[in-house]
Design brief:
Blueprint lengths: L8 H6 L8 E3 L2 E3 L8 E2 L6 H6 L5 E6 L9 E14 L12 E3 L4 H11 L14 E6 L2 E12 L2 E9 L8 H14 L4 E7 L3 H9 L2 E14 L1
Parallel strand pairs: 9-10
Antiparallel strand pairs: 1-2, 2-3, 4-11, 5-10, 5-11, 6-7, 7-8, 8-9
């Protein structure tokens, strides 16, 4: 059976639409960890990543097969996740509060991400693809955007809502908006959620997403 390209989304992205962002050493591939710390390696050559990374840098793996701790790294997290792909588009939202986010919004985006912990997020997130947000009283209270892009697929990521704004359906609204923006490019939206977050999984399933696969997530720090 042929592996699905999204079984290792970082590899599919870094050898495809995001090849221009790839850092390589031997068989190891990664994004600049100052952008996002996703990486992938050939299990037969784990030392290739060791040579690529500097002390203190993170390497995040999200893939179908479990990853052993690369030499020279310390494990900081292991968790199980699911990958969902869009099977039917949700209704297109028509809400004037949804606005594109740009470089002048980066600090507010990072501040929101630091409070809500949607996953790896940096000030440079907009280099990977567009984001949209909703402000209330000038404060960014919700956002969602795109991250890894593989052939035929684009990831929805950074979906988060400020604690004081939860319960208003903003995550649903923005996820639907991003899904339509991705579909307009001809790609299929996909996304990830931790198995430990069943509420998020139910939300995405209610938007027309279905679980494609279970993935292993691991985070390592170079020592």
């Amino acid at each position: 059976m042929t592996d699905h390209p999204l079984d290792t989304p970082a590899r599919a992205a870094l050898t495809g639409p995001h090849a221009h962002l790839a850092q390589r050493h031997g068989t190891a591939l990664r994004y600049d960890p100052g952008l996002i710390p996703f990486a992938c390696i050939d299990p037969a050559h784990p030392g290739d990543l060791t040579a690529l990374a500097a002390r203190g840098e993170l390497a995040v793996f999200l893939q179908a097969s479990a990853v052993a701790t690369p030499p020279g790294f310390a494990e900081t997290l292991r968790a199980e996740a699911v990958q969902l792909t869009c099977k039917s588009l949700p209704p297109a939202p028509d809400d004037p509060r949804i606005t594109p986010l740009g470089p002048t919004d980066a600090a507010d985006m990072l501040a929101l991400a630091e409070v809500t912990k949607p996953g790896p997020f940096t000030l440079r997130a907009l280099e990977l693809g567009p984001f949209w947000g909703i402000r209330q009283g000038g404060k960014l209270i919700a956002m969602a955007g795109t991250r890894m892009s593989a052939p035929g697929f684009t990831e929805i990521s950074g979906v988060c809502t400020a604690p004081e704004a939860r319960g208003q359906g903003l995550a649903r609204l923005l996820s639907a908006h991003v899904a339509h923006a991705i579909a307009a490019t001809g790609n299929t939206p996909f996304l990830h959620a931790f198995i430990s977050n069943p509420a998020a999984i139910r939300l995405y399933e209610s938007l027309g997403f279905a679980i494609r696969a279970e993935l292993a997530c691991a985070i390592f720090e170079k020592t």
